Amino acid sequence: MVTRNFWWPGVTKEVKQYVEECNSCQRNKNHIEQPADKLMPNSIPERSWIHISADFITKLPLVQGYNAILVVVDRLTKMVHFIPTTKETSVEDLARLFRDNMWKLHGLPKSIILDRGPQFVAGLIKELNRMLGIKSKISAIFHS
Question: pTM of the entire structure?
Answer without folding.
Answer: 0.65
